[in-house]
Amino acid sequence: MLKIEHLGIAVKDLNASIDLYTQLLGTPCYKVEEVASEGVNTAFFMTGESKVELLQATTETSPIAKFIEKKGQGIHHIAFDVEDISAEMKRLEALGFELLNATPKNGADNKLVCFLHPKTTNGVLIELCQNKG
Ligand code: ZN
Q1: pTM listed for this prediction
Q2: In this predicted model, what pLDDT tens digit does every residue of 96-131 receive, in sequence order?
Q3: How many Å lie between the centroid of ligand 1 and the Cα of residue 105?
Q4: SS3 state of residue 35
Q5: Confidence check: pLDDT of 13 > 90
Q6: Gap between the terminal Cα atoms of the chain
Q7: CA of 60 to the centre of ligand 1 (A)
Q8: Using one digit for the tens of pLDDT, what is the confidence trace for 35-51?
Q9: CA distances from 59 to 11, 53, 64, 68 (A)
């Protein structure tokens, strides 16, 4: 894995959180993007080589809505940049990690993504992401 690509933070109110993180990071949000298939609205900030992704649920059945209901707002996932997502998925599956999707899927910010189940990663939801170029 190349680096931490971004941290995903679950929030209740995306607009208010964009204002908050603009102040906190001292840099403006560079992209707001809805991922309808995941039931989320996202906002991205660049912080050096890594990013912060804010996620707000757009449906009651969205994984973000369920996360906030259970745990409240906060860090939702850590995303790692990978060069070849299919190869990484095969490698990790062979090591016993549980993949939440069998094939790479389209994520926000022009990425192919795959999530690893937190039960095989000490409770942390891990996202692999590869630039679509
Ligand atoms: Zn993410």
Answers
A1: 0.94
A2: 999 999 999 999 889 999 999 999 999 999 999 999
A3: 12
A4: strand
A5: yes
A6: 17
A7: 19
A8: 998 899 999 999 999 99
A9: 13, 18, 9, 12
